[in-house]
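Final report, Chapter 2: Outcomes

The project's central promise was a pipeline that accepts a single protein chain and returns its three-dimensional structure in a standardized token representation, suitable for archiving and comparison. That pipeline is now operational. To close this chapter, we reproduce one record exactly as it appears in the project archive, with the input sequence first and the structure output second.
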Amino acid sequence: MCIRDSSMRLHPNDKSLLVIMNSVASYLQSSFFASLLKKPQNSRCADCKAQHSRWASFSFGVLICIRCSGFHRKLRTHVTKVRSLDLDRWTSDQLDLYATTVQLRNAQERG
């Protein structure tokens, strides 16, 4: 069943579908980060060891505090990419990249 009309404008059903897709994406993002925050190694900022790390460098696969996120942002995106766990909407590609970077970092730390 096609939900687009012949003029290719959004049909009301399309908007409902987008709302559902955005809700699912938000749920997946929040559950992904909730599982990360439960791990003891993620309870503190990777840079300064402050509590309440609610930012992530998906270039390095670490969680950081808001203060250190400012330092990372000053380094520019060719060095590190920083996103908020709460304020930013992450794409599935960004979540995949972050998860892969975390796995690689963990493998290196294990030796």
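Archive annotation: The two ends are 53 Å apart (CA to CA).
This record, like all others produced under the grant, will remain available to the consortium after the project formally closes.
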